[in-house]
């Protein structure tokens, strides 16, 4: 797939007027990735479909549903290759403790969000959820203890994952080392007791909205039993990498490539 064809797909996005048009362009973009990992095997089909859609846009001004359907038929032979892949979307609710509201609103948002997640679990047996920050579980324990029983049940089932290694999602520059260490210690003690979790349940530090990252964080995390770090801000390099402290202590980091508030759309594949 050459750069001219990639540019053509980008140009076609300006002429989308319906879900069918968005769908076929998402399929084309995925086909580009699929062809790349198959040594360019599908480049000709992709070029043909992109050119066809461009011609239709020249006639109609937009990608019509009819044109999208015809283009999908031309890409159909890629389906067996595409279906070899599985996309896993991890549901998580990012809740700021006190960004631009007071504590009472934080409590309300936490309880409303958790009620929604539990209702979705009742409605969809395959739905799973993860939630970080020990502080939100403390809110439930204090303000809605009846809900806590439902959460414990889902945790035991493996459908609700407590990804909390810290009490709150904190800045990683301003607090001193002792503060970071106590985050790890108190969170582990509290949630092991509250949710009947094992020490192995706290191997990830989930910090999507943390802005600053001290150089010694891998040292503190690794000594606190954390092996993995999830981030979104503060670094523009690799999406998966090993972060080393000056001592050589390290954690494996996943930097969110699509932002933590990304919508679920076809083009994220």
Describe, in short, the structure shown.
This protein is an alpha/beta fold and 269 residues long.
Explain the overall architecture.
The protein has 269 residues and is an alpha/beta fold. Helix content is 48%, strand content 9%. The chain is built from ten helices and six strands; from the N terminus they run ααααααβααβαβαβββ. The protein has helices at 3-12, 19-36, 43-60, 65-74, 79-82, 103-123, 134-143, 145-157, 177-195, 217-223, and strands at 129-131, 160-162, 204-207, 228-231, 240-244, 250-255. The strands form two sheets. It has a four-stranded mixed sheet with strand order 3-4-6-5. α10 (217-223) links the parallel β3 (204-207) and β4 (228-231). α2 runs antiparallel to α3 (43-60). It is elongated and about 65 Å long. The mean pLDDT is 92.
């Amino acid at each position: 797939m050459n750069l001219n064809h990639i540019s053509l797909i980008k140009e076609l996005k300006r002429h989308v007027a319906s879900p069918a048009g968005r769908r076929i362009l998402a399929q084309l973009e995925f086909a580009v990735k699929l062809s790349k990992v198959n040594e360019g095997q599908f480049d000709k089909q992709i070029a043909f479909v992109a050119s066809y859609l461009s011609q239709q846009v020249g006639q109609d001004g937009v990608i019509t549903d009819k044109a999208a359907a015809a283009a999908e038929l031309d890409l159909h032979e890629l389906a067996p290759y595409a279906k070899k892949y599985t996309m896993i979307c991890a549901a998580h609710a990012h809740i700021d403790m006190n960004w631009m509201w007071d504590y009472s609103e934080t409590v309300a948002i936490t309880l409303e969000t958790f009620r929604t997640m539990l209702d979705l679990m009742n409605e969809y047996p395959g739905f799973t959820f993860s939630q970080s920050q020990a502080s939100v579980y403390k809110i439930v324990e204090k303000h809605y203890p009846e809900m806590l029983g439902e959460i414990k049940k889902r945790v035991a089932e493996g459908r609700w994952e407590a990804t909390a290694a810290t009490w709150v999602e904190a800045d990683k520059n301003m607090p001193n080392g002792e503060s970071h260490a106590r985050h790890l210690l108190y969170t582990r003690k509290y949630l092991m007791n509250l949710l009947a979790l094992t020490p192995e349940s706290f191997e990830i530090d989930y910090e999507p909205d943390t802005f600053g990252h001290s150089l010694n964080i891998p040292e503190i995390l690794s000594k606190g039993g954390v092996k993995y770090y999830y981030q979104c801000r503060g670094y523009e390099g690799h999406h998966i990498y090993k972060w080393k402290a000056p001592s050589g202590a390290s954690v494996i980091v996943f930097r969110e490539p699509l932002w933590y508030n990304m919508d679920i759309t076809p083009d994220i594949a």
